[in-house]
Amino acid sequence: MQELTHYLNGAHVKGTSGRFADVFNPATGEVQARTPLASAEELDTAVQYAMAAQPAWAATNPQRRARVLMKFVALLNRDMDKLAEALSREHGKTLPDAAGDVQRGLEVVEYCIGAPELLKGEYTDSAGPGIDMYSMRQALGVTAGITPFNFPAMIPMWMFAPAIACGNAFILKPSERDPSVPLMLAELLEEAGLPKGIIQVVNGDKEAVDAILHHEVIQSVGFVGSTPIAEYIYATGCANGKRVQCFGGAKNHMIIMPDADMDQAADALVGAGYGAAGERCMAISVAVPVGDDTADRLMEKLVPRVEKLKVGPYTAGNDVDYGPVVTAAAKANIERLVQTGIDQGAKLLVDGRNFNLQGYEDGFFVGPHLFDHATKDMDIYQKEIFGPVLTCVRAQSYEEALGLAMDHEYGNGTAIFTRDGDAARDFANRINIGMVGINVPIPVPLAYHTFGGWKKSVFGDLNQHGPDAFKFYTRTKTVTARWPSGIKDGGEFSIPVME
Ligand code: NAD
């Protein structure tokens, strides 16, 4: 069995803690590798390398840093198929979806190539008599990121590309479920010319995370994952004086107005609800048709589409709509929540239980489920299922539908399907959710805008990528300067003001 490594100071390094986690092939259920789980000492080794390398990297001019990212983009494109295959093998998503995972990360790298422009400071000539004032953005130093299993290429790139472009060193603690692609990305960055020690990968679990949170050299922590862990990391990181941004779980509602095109709405729901087996933080997991007639028309279109979904291993190529979920534990949790839905009285219109794929009996496959007539007190509505389960909650009016999404504890993404511009505009203005789609079911903003939810989907105040990332990974320093000829004689005892 393959033994994975850490990636420290430009080299693959075996784990020394003696602790390992199994890495599965979710399609077959087999353990295909084991990944080391770092101790606090191993994390500290990475920090020491990062500290040694970072000052020279920060002093490298931003255009040269950007050129490394340009080369990195070329290498990502060169190795796209290899990366997608490695990603599918550990995560389970289909190959086109895995390539999309790499591509959405690559697009943020492309954005970060604009670092020389994005890092430009501000300057005021003659802010006072003979006084000039300027502000600059400087790197934080050693930064770290903790990422989830569901986008093992994209989310690490969303963090390390801006961190590195700004002149920081970055230590990545990827998910222990699928650590191979993050290791490959670190290798590619160094092939692109990144100095050793600027990107490092420390594999691990809570022990490595806690070591990051308590290491006094680490200046910032980025986190993406489930809400309870996001909350813990935010509280602990902030208590230790770090700059922290944490992105948590989701329960994304799609509101279907009576005037929507039901074919379009149903197509959007199958893609956004079941793509990647529902393991996306921007998956639509709740459909809210407005009015019973709308709900009936929607279900008529939706049920046959859900029944026709093709579930299988990534090796089956284009013949598959979605693959297995990531682990046996994830599958068991989905099945448990489905059972609560049945027990609590929702109507299971498409029953994906007992799904069986010949030749892949030990894989972590979950058939597609569709619930109708769910209510807001049910577990299937309140909890993030993170599986191929779409729950329909019928609303009798637009206000009721809006209220459902507004009252839910999560606020990552949402969508409205309608032909009515007024309704769409009202929805976009009033909804308390960070990313809104109008006839777009998965409104993931592009690299030059920012990504982030509201409510329990986020802890911290700056979003991922776009201009916010350059703020998160730098500090502002403001210099006020005057030269001897402008300095009056004698001390000045009252606060200088501009009269
Ligand atoms: P997770 O919270 O289980 O794990 C995320 C990271 O935290 C991993 O690196 C893991 O090793 C670490 N971790 C796990 N338990 C920990 C603990 N007790 N203490 C410290 N660290 C711990 O999440 P996951 O299952 O990998 O990913 C799925 C979740 O991520 C879903 O809730 C999904 O909605 C969310 N997600 C959110 C976004 C977003 O942008 N809001 C994006 C992708 C995924």
From TrEMBL:
**Enzyme Commission number:** 1.2.1.27
**Which residue ranges does the record assign to the Aldehyde dehydrogenase domain?**
13-479
The enzyme's first-digit EC class, named in words, is oxidoreductase
Q: Which CDD domains match?
A: ALDH_F6_MMSDH
One of this protein's GO BP terms?
Answer: thymine catabolic process
Keyword match Translocase: no
The record ties this protein, via Pfam families, to: Aldedh
What one GO molecular function would you report for this record?
methylmalonate-semialdehyde dehydrogenase (acylating, NAD) activity
Protein's name in the database: methylmalonate-semialdehyde dehydrogenase (CoA acylating)
